[in-house]
Amino acid sequence: MKRRSFLGALALTPLAAVAGGAEGILRSMNPLSGSRSPLSGSMWIYLWDLVDEGYEFVLQRLAENGLTGISMATAYHAGRFLEPHNPKRKVVFLEDGTVYFKPNYSLYKKLHPKVNSLVNAGHGLERAKKSADKCGFTTRAWVVCCHNTRLGTAHPEIACEDAFGDKLFHNLCPSNADVRQYLRSLVKDIGSHEVDAIELEALQFQGFSHGYHHEREGIELNITAKFLLGLCFCSSCMERVHAAHVDLIALRTYTRKFLESWFSDPSVSASKYPTIESLPADLLTPVLEWRKSVVSSLLEELAENAKKTKLRQMVSLDPLARKIVSVDPAVSSKITGGLLALGYGRMGFRSRSP
Asked: What b/e sequence results for 141-151 when a residue is b if at least 16 CB atoms lie within 10 Å of its CB, and e otherwise?
């Protein structure tokens, strides 16, 4: 499928189909209201595409295909992108953990945003929104929250810590006070640009397998082992969980023993513990419920700082995925008035002979 054909297909029939198909799932997670909002289509987009292809050209192409807004990456992580459509470059390597707007540094304390070089060259959220306004488009700011390797490496004390005391530098812990303050400031700062909404990605406990450069494991790891490897036992979690009277120390002890056994013979452990549900519920369930309260309370803080700016937390339609990262969609929807539900598809671009 060619790119123009894909945009057209996305903007027309499948848009209504996706909205209708997900409606029952979302209502079951939080039946707030029977009312329905008019359908609209917003595309996730990156600043370098606007710069390389031209702001007006990109927005005109989206408008021609029935889209009504953009969701621009405004605080983003590292990456390598193949861009077949880009007229100036085909491979883009991202600057890790940068923001794509001009921050108000007076809002921040210990942790500070790093400005992307494109912003220093005169581009950014401000210019994108101005162009979008001219086209009658809405502008959403897409913000990655607790996945920031740059900040985690520079400040190891804010990163998640596994059962062995190893830092997971790509994961910022939502229990950490400095992380929470940084995200509050970030939301307040971006909200001052009068965007239509802020989309919150990775506002959660991230886990083990997302995403570092040249990851190596060397042994079989099923979902149970990866889940336990990603649990956080940092000092911030230990301090916060104490007031909730939840035994995180017992779970850390169990997790270390479990993983040591797994490292000794993965095949035996994999057969005994094929799923997360096979783990002892008396140890795990109270911790997972407590972790959901950590994420929900952080979202409440962000909502307070966003003031009139609408927030939408990204959540998976997969219940297991939500369990792993400790996100409660019903509570999130109650706090912000809605959700951004992720339902990834497998359709890609295929060349077609004329």
From this structure: bbbbbbbbbbb
Residues 100-158: pLDDT tens digits?
Answer: 999 999 999 999 999 999 999 999 999 999 999 999 999 999 999 999 999 999 999 99
pLDDT category of residue 202 using cuts at 50, 70 and 90: very high
Partners of 342 in the beta sheet? 316
Quick one: which of 180, 154, 146, 153 has its CA closest to 169? 153
**Alpha helices by DSSP H, the chain:** 3-11, 13-29, 47-53, 55-64, 117-120, 125-134, 149-154, 177-191, 223-230, 235-244, 248-264, 266-272, 281-306, 319-325, 329-336
Q: Can you tell me the distance from the alpha carbon of 187 to that of 199, in angstroms, rounded to the nearest whole number?
A: 10
Residue with structure tokens 């502008």?
A: 139
DSSP notation for 249-315: HHHHHHHHHHHHHHHH-HHHHHHH--SGGGS-HHHHHHHHHHHHHHHHHHHHHHHHHHTTSEEEEEE
pTM of the model: 0.88
With beta carbons less than 8 A apart as the criterion, state whether 171 and 207 touch: yes
Six-digit token string for 263: 């490292």
218: left (phi over 0), alpha (psi -120 to 50) or beta: left
Distance separating alpha carbons of residues 163 and 205, to the nearest angstrom: 15
Structure tokens at 197: 């909404």
Pair type for strands 80-82 and 91-93? antiparallel
Cα–Cα distance measured from residue 75 to residue 109, given in angstroms and rounded to the nearest whole number: 17
Position 346 scores a pLDDT of 59
**Residue 3, pLDDT above cutoff 60:** no
For 23, residues 6+ apart whose C-beta sits below 8 A from its C-beta are none
**Contacts with 236 (C-beta within 8 Å, 6 or more apart), sequence order:** 158, 173, 175, 176, 177
